[in-house]
Specification:
Length: about 120
């Protein structure tokens, strides 16, 4: 695995913990955290700039420096890969997930479920 593949995997909706579709909103900001002894800061910056230019329609235009990265030069604790990554995004698409949770809560509250 290289920096380019890891960066594209971090933007893949299947990697998100929250079930939200980024096509239904826009990214506001993002932080990408890389870990590995072989992670190159130059390659990470290059791939993030290319991805930001390629997907500029998925980002709000009024935040110019929307992506930041951090690199930890320590190998991941598991030996299945030489590098790993984590992404944190602030996106408007999470509103549909929150709307779904609110709808389920309101239905339960209407039936007085779990109210003591």
């Amino acid at each position: 695995m290289d920096e380019k593949q890891l960066t594209s995997d971090l933007f893949d909706p299947r990697s998100f913990l929250c079930e939200s579709n980024p096509a239904h909103g826009k990214f506001l900001t993002g932080s990408l955290l890389y870990r590995g002894e072989t992670v190159s800061a130059g390659a990470v910056d290059q791939h993030l700039a290319a991805l930001s230019d390629k997907r500029s329609s998925q980002f709000v235009e009024w935040i110019p420096n929307r992506l930041m990265n951090s690199i930890c030069a320590v190998a991941p604790p598991y030996k299945t890969s030489t590098m790993s990554g984590t992404s944190l995004f602030n996106a408007t698409s999470v509103a549909e997930t929150l709307r779904r949770v609110l709808d389920k809560y309101q239905r339960m509250f209407k039936r007085r479920a779990f109210i003591h």
